[in-house]
Amino acid sequence: MEDRFALLIDADNVSAKYIEPILDELSKYGNVTYKRIYGDWTSTNNAGWKEELLNNSITPIQQFSYTHGKNSTDSAMIIDAMDMLYTSELEGFCLVSSDSDFTKLASRLRESGKTVIGMGENKTPAPFRKACDIFTVLELLLEGSMSENDAVARSQIEEAVVKIITENQNDDRVTGLGEVGSRLVKLYPDFDVRRYGYSLLSKFLESFPKLKLIQSGSQITVTLYEDRNRKEQIEEFIRRQIKDAGKHGVSLSVLGNRIRSRFGDFKVRDYGFSQFKQYIQSFSGVHVEEDGENNRAVYEKKDDNK
């Protein structure tokens, strides 16, 4: 059975041109059982919505502007949402507005275990975006409006995925494409591959040099791409540093600085480890000795001939 959603639209802060993309996007998540839009329908400002209401079976809720300059639709929309929360069997809410006044409502609905999908124009303040489980920028739903402006940096996305994969590897778990997508949305509620010019998450991830996708039947896993030549160079460098240090070994802090000086952007998580000490201990014939506040990497005697 599909999840049931209530669609609540703030007509004062969203243009009517988005209605079809909104409904298409929301259909990905479940069945829309309530479709309501809030505004002052005696005002000419909302004239663009009137034809769309009938065409898309959206129920208009009249809210007069009692105070000049105050968005009076907020209270009506919030009251209806809370009524639905307690009287209707819904799995989630879609709040469509570019107004931060709905931040508290989004947080309250999530506290009650409901999925909250937010949609708003690119001007929507960060607090409302982050209060939602998922936030979609409406401009992205219009063909030809894709833009990386104000999006999370690609390098930041890549590093987040590398961290997810490394954490799973430490727990002997593979990383599925679906898990990557869901965790990226949890980290960045307004994450959307369409911002970067892609329609599929898989194609977006394939554009990163550190990531590799493997398909087995219908399952797609995401793993780290290992540049074996570079990996072997780094390992040979580390072994040589430890061996040349003799029986006293070399401190991990000094070794780490030497590696970064030689190999620039070296990060242990690129090789499946969360700590530098664990990475060094993975080398055969090498052990780490505690030396006060410092740890030292030392070759075992049986490996002296290597």
From TrEMBL:
InterPro entries xrefs = LOTUS-like (IPR041966), NYN (IPR021139), OST-HTH/LOTUS_dom (IPR025605)
PROSITE patterns, from UniProt? HTH_OST
Q: Which Pfam families match?
A: NYN, OST-HTH
The residues covered by the HTH OST-type domain are 153-226, 230-302
CDD domains associated with the record = LabA_like_C (cd10146), PIN_LabA-like_N_1 (cd11297)
Name by which UniProt lists this protein: HTH OST-type domain-containing protein
Annotated organism of origin: Claveliimonas bilis
